[in-house]
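ugh ok fine here u go
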Amino acid sequence: MKRSWNPAIWIGFALALLGAASYPLFFIRWPITRDFPWANLILLAAAVVLLVIGLSRAFRQPDAYRGKIFGPILSVLSLAVIGFFCFVVFYMARQLPASASSPIVGAVAPDFTIPDSLGHPVTLSDLLALPFRTNDWPSAVPAASPADKTAGLVLIFYRGYW
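structure:
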């Protein structure tokens, strides 16, 4: 009886490589797959299932399927790739250094100038000096009555991957 190739081992190994390589090349572009690599983990789990099926075929039916030599080698290589992927994504990516110059909560922001949506320069001190009326946006009218309150400003800083 002629032994046939064991495609589950080879597809499992290819899927392990694809699952690990597709995260930095493809899935890192979107926050839904960048924040938690669920798509990659599904690919890696499918790779493990295929490797187990292929190994069980190779050792339970050695007269029908090949893979007693390449099966364990490719399985160990696949597990090494999966382990390295999990180490990098779940441990190393979380080891970002603390930013020494980042603002802290409650700190006074320095005065700065940025362009608005129309390209006109807007200064932080100008925004804080504008009167703010209830149920109204800050107005550029400089005449402020005693009932007007000074506008408040909330700044949100995002630290991301660039």
